[in-house]
Design a protein that fits this description.
about 35% helix, 13 helices, about 425 residues, three-stranded antiparallel beta sheet, single chain, alpha/beta, Aspartate Aminotransferase, domain 2, Aspartate Aminotransferase, domain 1
């Protein structure tokens, strides 16, 4: 027994203030941001240009376009890969909504595929069955920072002449068989949102080694123009375009954080290893995996719970929520990443993204049905998972990971007491 549960009035394992916020800010960040602020280019400026060069060099890509979000980069990728009205794009049934709504943004139809239980990523063995004569691309989401098995997806792409778009928004620095994500498909999208491994508050990046995709993405990015803001523009729209550019202040912050990204990722690897060891062999707790040949960046440390294995006789969903509540009371900042599988979301069930049934009622579209029962693994995952981000990030170190592990053991040692704990609204 490790003391009374905090949810029942005991002292929490992790005291207030022990877990430090993300990201760490130092004089490098202050210098870059203040230099930008004191400059005279506050829209797309010199820091944007340099961030593109530096991120492309860091990841190993030929081309990079800095955007105002990872979602914008995903939409640019869909458009630049030639996907249009009535085309289908394969997407995992469980991810953040942007992984699928980016398909709708270019009048295309998402087709969902269930996920693997072990990796939480798209089940590569089920992709081929979802391919039709309308399929144009596959979006692979490296969820929580673990790469998808691209070897099998690349073989399918070659067989059916499909494009591969990597949603690497959470996966900076993750590798598959020694190769970084963003180098495996035709193009990739990264996010620099507040909680990402590279944080500039908001922002993102599209990367590719394909010059044709790069040029097409640039047009989507800037009003359908063919010339960038640092060139002599003719202000003529040559194609459908948006305004997805980044700004200089945000890019300056991104540049300073990029200088420390390798250090951040190394710390996450170390802290995740400590936490995994601390909570190994807890009955009812399903740990994240890192298969041979995969390198996780530990953007999010996601676990699943199994009520019966833990000795809890209540409902599985209720058990997950009570464990979550008990851990939060112990000072662990855990939460639920996404409660709903994508096919359950209203925009897909209503099939009416643009009004009047579009894009599903487009004359070039094939009839697509979204039955949540077709995705049992994703459903099981959505009902049983929770995770955490900040405890494994710098400036937090192994000592925080050990305290988090102690909180897990304390809660699971007293699982039977959770039966009578009321759930908060």
């Amino acid at each position: 027994m490790r003391g009374k549960l905090a949810v029942l009035g005991g002292e929490p394992v992790i005291p207030a203030g022990m877990i430090k916020p993300w990201p760490p800010i130092d004089d490098i960040d202050r210098q870059y941001v203040l230099n930008s602020l004191e400059g005279n280019a506050h829209s797309f400026g010199p820091n944007c240009v340099e961030l593109e060069k530096e991120f492309a060099a860091w990841n190993g890509n030929k081309f990079a376009i800095t955007t105002n979000s990872g979602t914008a980069a995903l939409h640019m990728a869909v458009a630049a890969c030639g996907c249009g009205a009535g085309d289908e794009v394969i997407v995992p049934a469980y991810s953040w909504s942007s992984s699928a709504t980016c398909v709708l943004h270019h009048n295309c139809i998402p087709v969902f595929v269930d996920i693997e239980w072990a990796t939480m990523n798209i089940d590569v063995e089920k992709i081929e069955a979802a391919i039709t004569e309308k399929t144009k691309a596959i979006i692979v989401v490296h969820l929580h920072g673990l790469p998808v098995n691209l070897e099998k997806v690349l073989a399918l792409a070659k067989k059916y002449n499909l494009k591969i778009i990597e949603d690497a928004c959470q996966a900076h620095g993750a590798t598959f068989k020694g190769k970084k994500v963003g180098l495996l498909g035709d193009c990739a999208a990264f996010s620099f949102n507040q909680n990402k491994c590279l944080c500039s508050g908001e922002g993102g990046m599209l990367v590719t080694d394909n010059e044709e995709i790069y040029r097409a993405a640039r047009m989507i990015w800037s009003f359908g123009e063919t010339r960038t803001p640092v060139e002599s523009r003719d202000y003529h729209a040559y194609a459908l375009g948006w305004m997805y550019r980044n700004n200089d202040l945000t890019a300056a912050f991104g540049r300073s954080q990029l200088k420390k990204l390798d250090q951040y990722l190394a710390a996450q690897q170390e802290n995740a290893a400590v936490l995994l060891e601390e909570i190994r062999n807890i009955p009812g707790l399903v740990l994240p995996v890192e298969p041979p040949g995969y390198k996780h960046n530990w953007y999010n440390f996601t676990v699943r719970v199994e009520a019966t294995s833990a000795g809890y006789d209540g409902q599985p969903d209720e058990f997950r929520d009570k464990v979550l509540q008990a851990l939060q009371a112990e000072g662990v900042p855990v939460g639920i990443y996404q409660r709903f599988i994508l096919p359950r979301m209203t925009v897909f069930q209503a099939r009416n993204a643009y009004g009047r049934g579009c894009p599903w009622d487009c004359p070039w579209a094939r009839k697509v049905v979204y039955d949540p029962d077709d995705f049992p693994v994703a459903e099981k995952h959505a009902r049983s998972h929770f995770g955490m981000t900040y405890p494994l990030r710098l400036p937090n170190g192994p000592e925080v990971a050990r305290q988090v592990g102690e909180a897990f053991r304390k809660v699971f040692d007293q699982v039977s007491l959770l039966r009578d704990v009321p759930l908060k609204g």
